[in-house]
Amino acid sequence: MPPISLLRGDVPLGDLLALKVTEANEQERAQVSELAEQMQRRTGQSVTLAYTDQGYTGESAAAQAAEHGIELQVVRHPEAKRGFLLLPRRWVVERTFAWLGRSRRLARDYERLASALASWHWLAFVAILLARILPGST
User: Fold this and answer.
1) Per-residue pLDDT for 12 more than 70?
2) Which residue from 3, 14, 60, 101 has the least number of CB within 10 angstroms?
3) Structural domains in the chain?
4) Which of 83, 129, 77, 128 is nearest to 103 (CA)?
5) 69 three-state secondary structure
6) What is the pLDDT of residues 75-115, one digit of tens each?
7) Using alpha carbons only, what angle is made at residue 78 by residues 74 and 80, rounded to the nearest 5 degrees?
8) Is beta strand 71-74 parallel, antiparallel or unpaired with respect to 16-23?
């Protein structure tokens, strides 16, 4: 299997709403329509704004999201900045990645099937949500 890329749709708290595993050479912005449709289906059409990284720039990605009633807001790096910089709303995504980093199975991509990798991510998020509901259970 070629290298893969994991595309996620999150709510402001960092909870997983949608997930798509693609080959690494596919453009992220080409997957916006499917992710937006999944998010709206799971939330009853309640998502209106999505913060994205620079992989989702362009008219095509914005148009795909708008078809599903979602406005894309790209969080950009300021020009001429070097080193670490905390970007608005980007910290939520990075914190979520850190939570996932605690799941050893997700530390490396051992899965042959994209569906298996997606399933492990869903299981990891179930564990994260359970830990939030039942503090001290982990």
Assistant:
1) no
2) 3
3) 4-133 (3.30.420)
4) 128
5) coil
6) 777 776 677 766 777 777 777 778 888 887 777 777 888 88
7) 145
8) unpaired
